[in-house]
Amino acid sequence: MKIALYCPNKPLTHPNPSGDLIIARGLHNALNRFGHQCEEVLQFRSRWFWKSPEGWCRAAAALTRGFLNAYRLAPRVWLTYHSYYKSPDVVGPWVSRALGIPYVLFQPMYGTRRRKDPRTRGGFYLNRIALKQACHSFVNNLDDLEAMRRIVPGGNITYLPPGIFPKQFARDENLGFEMRRALHIGSDVPVIMTAARFRADVKYESLVYLLHALAKLRLRRPRFRLLVAGDGPMESRLKELARELLPGQALFVGKVPREKMFEYYSASDVFAFPGIGESLGMVFLEAQACRLPVVALDTGGVPQVVRSGETGRLVPRDDGEAMAAALDDLLGDREARLTMGRNGERFIQEERNLERNTLRLSAALEAIAR
Predict the structure, then answer these.
(1) Which residues sit opposite 194 in a β-bridge?
(2) Sequence-separated (6 or more) residues with CB below 8 Å from residue 207
(3) pTM for this one?
(4) What is the pLDDT of residue 226?
(5) C-beta of residue 241 within 8 angstroms of C-beta of residue 207
(6) Does the structure show a pLDDT above 90 at 23?
(7) Domains of the chain
(8) Which residue, 97, 131, 151, 344, is most buried by CB atoms nearer than 10 A?
């Protein structure tokens, strides 16, 4: 079946990695693996477009371009990934109606508080139009599910848990050993890994929080290494803080291609990232698939992707003491780490497996098209 895909927040070719982009690419790849012809028909990034006359001109041009591309493809379904107040879909509702095909949303978001703020009111109403016109919505976040039920009839919403392809993050002990050797880390040195985009928002806030927590851990357990994967505009400030708080212990390895991440996970003993402001956090799923216990804050959407006490430890937000204590416990208990690692791998295989979850989406889209 031909499917027209549109990602108004970030096109599939966007250079900066993020959880949303990972989900979008995984969705696109999985649908094609199931035999569909899923094509991205438009790369117009609608983020804040309505704030300028030039943005409205770009949106009008995108509407024309989207119609022509979809007309040539002749899809049976239009699928928009992640329409929300910052990046509302102002193309899909009209093109799908013109072509006489179902308009479907995946991971839409709705928050009435955006209506009250003049800075976000325009995006709120534009997004609301898209949500109202969708014949069906699929959500992968339980918080979004509750919000969507306020505007869309319950029968037109389906919850599909977030997932990854587990085989892409299978642990490889031999590669992990080679990676440690390449990084000059002894086999007996505990390794804590973290990964994020170094941008000036909650990602940076989380990394700063982690560095302060590890400074407290250093007082109890001075011998460990921190492996940091990622890059971004805040890199120099993070490195400076790491030199101050963890002299000689933090190793920044730069931006790692996603297909290579499993090598770094395999070289590590624990994955730690606070997850401040995270709606879900795809790195948590990747780490668990690679049999790494996770230590994070018990906040936001993190409990939806990490099972505290089973696949990791979720701790309250304080001055970093609770996170330091949890890491100290895990680094001192190899059996607990191995048990949580096996639990995490099984959790991803059975409940956060993108192959299985997208199979349900595939079947639903075919039923909608019929």
Answers:
(1) 228
(2) 194, 196, 198, 228, 234, 238, 273
(3) 0.84
(4) 97
(5) no
(6) no
(7) 2-163+353-369 (3.40.50.2000), 166-351 (3.40.50.2000)
(8) 344
